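quick one, 113 residues, struct below
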Amino acid sequence: MSQNTAYSASMMENATSEFQTFGHPGKYMTSYYYQTPAAGSGPTIFTGSLYGYGAIMIAADGGAGLGITASLSDGGTVSAGELTAKTIYDFSVRSITGSGQVYVFKRNAKYRG
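---
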């Protein structure tokens, strides 16, 4: 049996946002835009405060991600040049290196869709 519940402003006064109160409704919560880093800066590693990024998308057609390699969390790599632009691929990303532009998306761990 489903029941409608009304929430008042006073119920949320301690919450920073509705997302903290009710959770994030979508599959992804945020994105990280990776573009060619300064020479010698090394890879972007998705651990610590960047933990939880689990999808990647080449930013645009025309070779935007051709020089990028994604290392996966349990081993192996994926060359972005082998992926179709503007398509989201669900990979457990450990690090990104190389030249180009990609979006890496942080997964919503509570999403069950």
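The helical segments are 18-22.
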